[in-house]
Automatic annotation (TrEMBL):
Record's keyword annotation contains Oxidoreductase: yes
PROSITE patterns named in the record: ABM
Top-level division of the source organism's lineage: Bacteria
PANTHER family hit by this protein: ABM DOMAIN-CONTAINING PROTEIN, QUINOL MONOOXYGENASE YGIN-RELATED
Keyword Oxidoreductase: yes
Keywords for the protein's UniProt record, in alphabetical order: Monooxygenase, Oxidoreductase
Name of the protein this chain belongs to: Antibiotic biosynthesis monooxygenase
An example Gene Ontology molecular-function term: monooxygenase activity
ABM domain segment(s): 4-92
SUPFAM superfamilies tied to this protein: Dimeric alpha+beta barrel
A Pfam family annotated for this UniProt entry: ABM
Length: 107
């Protein structure tokens, strides 16, 4: 099975950014305990504190699908929805394997 990489971009409402960060932190913590989760980390875009990017790496597409189907995640997205300026932008990526051994860590 090939790993799957997901990049999610979230734009926080300025007046509710702290709340949004709390929800995102809880999602990260919970997701780390899920089978097949290899990486799940939130990042702030440099110079854009209201734009967060979540980088995920899953052992397989099935693991990602199981994560996305989890009822607790739907609840978290329901709470986060009112804390964002719009829908998250989600990109699912398939690694190509290009890169130097040890440097292409997302592979």
């Amino acid at each position: 099975m090939e790993p799957v990489i997901v990049v999610g971009t979230l734009r926080l409402r300025a007046d509710r950014a702290d709340e949004a960060r709390e929800v995102i932190a809880s999602v990260v913590e919970h997701t780390h305990r899920e089978p097949g989760c290899l990486t799940y980390a939130a990042h702030e875009v440099a110079g854009e504190p209201l734009t967060l990017v979540v980088i995920e790496k899953w052992a397989s597409r099935q693991h990602l699908d199981d994560h996305n189907a989890a009822p607790w995640l739907a609840d978290a997205f329901g709470r986060a929805g009112e804390l964002l300026t719009g829908a998250p932008e989600i990109q699912v990526l398939t690694p190509l394997g290009y890169g130097t051994a040890g440097k292409a860590a997302l592979r």
